[in-house]
Amino acid sequence: MVDPQLTGILLSPFVLALLGLCIGSFLNVVIHRLPLMMERAWRADGAELLGVVIDEPAQISLSAPRSRCPSCGHAIAWHENIPLVSYLLLGGKCSACKTPISVRYPAIEVLTALLFAACGWQFGPQPGVLLWCGFTATLVALAFIDVDTMLLPDDLTLPLLWAGIVASALGWIPVSLAASVGGAVVGYMALWFVFHAYRLIRGKEGMGAGDFKLLAALGAWLGWGLIPSIILLSSAVGAAVGLSLIVLRRHDRDVPIPFGPYLAGGGVAAMFFGEQLTRLWLPTA
User: Fold this and answer.
1) What are the residues whose beta carbons fall under 8 Å from the beta carbon of 154, sequence distance 6 or more?
2) pLDDT, tens digit, for every residue of 235-273?
3) Nearest to 191 by CA among 283, 263, 96
4) Residue ranges per domain, the chain?
5) Whole-angstrom Cα distance, residue 33 to residue 45?
6) Best exposed site among 25, 33, 42, 226 by fewest CB in 10 Å?
């Protein structure tokens, strides 16, 4: 039997924050490389259909090749890849060519660490907290991939959806199986309906199918009852940001804005403040 005191230490917010820094470092790799891997797979499929041979660069995966400086090709040594610490010790610059390293890398590490610590506070030192840490980590990856590429990969959204349903079925999360499956269905169909209504009215597509799948995954983890809160919150923030970009940066209103980050943020907010949000929208609930 596991010592409760040891469990309390290992799953404390502080230790989870350290774990979050490490996972955040890995998420930087996922965010950068997964779209490249998808693009190569698409090109390979297209070449096979056309019966042509394409000359692809060296194979890339989440584990190989080693990370390198994009400016000079310097291979990142292990001591230069310690989450957050290495960035600070290097002064935010490559050790070889002194090119500035994007602040987004440590920002993602810190964001993931804060989310993991918050999960520790919210759910307490019990094994199920690791599931919620994985949930938030996947949302971080999806949000930043969508910002970079306007894509929400099935390789992340579908496993997230099924993980929520399985976790519910096994009693690992406080959401009934009926609420989980209902959340997946309601989440998908809600944005599917919006998509087709917008296309009927405006004659063009307003979002991608990845958004449907992401909201379905959020519903699978959080239950159908929080779908309205997620949609309202993400839509309100997305509209505010979109209007700000148009007004302050002369952003063309016809240029699409990724909706995935707002859905992910709405999902995280619903995870931490679900009951409060429901009472806010529905005071009698």
Assistant:
1) 210, 213
2) 888 777 766 666 666 556 666 788 999 999 999 999 999
3) 263
4) 1-124, 150-285
5) 18
6) 42
